[in-house]
Amino acid sequence: MRANFRMQRLFIDSPLHTGATHEATREQFNYLVNVLRFDEGSSILAFNGRDGEWRAELSRPTRKHLVLTASEQTRPQPAASDLVYLFAPLKSGRLDYLVQKAVEMGAGALQPVMTQHVQGKLGNLDRLRANVVEAAEQCGVLGIPSVEAPRKLEELLADWPRDRRIIFCDEGNESQNPLPVLDKINERRLALLIGPEGGFSEAERVLLRSLDFVTAIPLGPRILRADTAAVAALAVIQATLGDWR
Fold first, then answer.
1. How many CB atoms lie within 10 A of CB 119?
2. Distance separating alpha carbons of residues 223 and 94, to the nearest angstrom
3. DSSP 142-206
4. Which residues share a beta bridge with 68?
5. For 174-226, what is each residue's pLDDT tens digit?
6. DSSP states of 97-143 as a string?
7. DSSP secondary-structure letter at 232?
8. Residues spanned by CATH 3.40.1280.10 within the chain?
9. CATH class of 9-75
């Protein structure tokens, strides 16, 4: 069932079922009442990442309180995405873009990875999580990807589950076409690794290529920025191995 983009969507951290109520937080109240000018009797679409999407009616029991009451489910909760997105943090503006596009493209978990040439810095992970929620609200996504604490690349690889293949975008790959490489992958548990703006170091490339659970792919003849490479790689993986098939 397709998303209804004519109605306002809101993520809430409360159970959703027929008759379920949720009192809007201060931020939600300000957004719905003061920014969007919604009032008593207005309807929105609410989701929590677990119970699907629900039509919810707004009521104002007092002037300073807003209550959402779920009336009917508009979309069921889909199966959670199993695609893990591993990325080196970028500079602030590009990092926001990268996270939003990963959500739109169907990532199920976001794992920051600290590499040798990483240039971006991760502050409070709450900002990344807020970007995840905002992207889901805007794009009709019902699943909320988890955001994990950053890890160093070497440590991540040392205890990586061997039944989940890592696909990493290697700008030094000899070929230009990723499709023949992806066609040979049989695993369905996958992770995508995108390097930093400065690329992987030679030592990191050697390490990655030495591991039997890692596959390197090219992304065409052009040099792509890290945030562009992320979208391109997610698209080609979803089209060949993921949920676009």
1. 14
2. 17
3. -S--EEPPPEEHHHHHHT--TTSEEEEE-TT-S-S-SHHHHTT---SSEEEEE--TT---HHHHH
4. 22, 58
5. 678 899 999 999 888 999 999 888 889 999 999 999 999 999 998 888 888 88
6. HHHHHHHHTT-SEEEEEE-TT-------HHHHHHHHHHHHHHHT--S
7. H
8. 84-240
9. mainly beta
